[in-house]
Amino acid sequence: MRSEYDSAKIEAAAQVQAGAYGWLVMWRQWRRCFTAWECRDPQQVRIIEAPTVAELCDRMQEVELELWQASPSLPASWSLPCDLPLRSAR
């Protein structure tokens, strides 16, 4: 049986994933953390973990920036996952 705490975390993960194209995002109850897999390149999947949604979004944005810098052919409409500023910009 899931606790209210876990239900809220599962919903938060689903909301992040809904706004993050190319990512699979889950709350991992047994590890007590959020995990995100960047899945656009099956030969180089990036996996990140964080205890909070805010930290997960920061790390997702860092990965997106790294990918963008390595691939200058991305369209101008490209945007970062999560609608949160990077922690370093806060």
List keywords for this structure.
3-stranded antiparallel sheet, single chain, disordered C terminus, 90 residues, 2 helices, elongated, alpha+beta, 3 strands, 37% helix
List the helices and strands and how they pair.
Blueprint lengths: L3 H15 L4 E6 L4 E6 L7 E5 L2 H18 L20
Describe the protein in words.
There is one protein chain. By secondary structure, the protein is of the alpha+beta class. It has two helices and three strands, in the order αβββα. It has helices spanning 4-18, 53-70, and strands at 23-28, 33-38, 46-50. The radius of gyration is 14 Å and the shape is elongated. Mean pLDDT is 82; it is low at 84-90.
Helix/strand class: alpha+beta
Uncertain spans: 84-90
Question: What is the straight-line distance between the termini?
Answer: 37 Å
Number of strands: 3
For the largest beta-sheet, the strand count, sense and barrel status come to: 3 strands, antiparallel
| Strand line-up across the major sheet | 1-2-3
Globally, the shape reads: elongated
Encode the helix/strand succession as letters: HEEEH
Give Rg in angstroms.
14 Å
Mean pLDDT: 82
**Helix proportion range:** 25-40%
User: How much beta, percentage-wise?
Assistant: 15-25%
Tally the helices: what do you get? 2
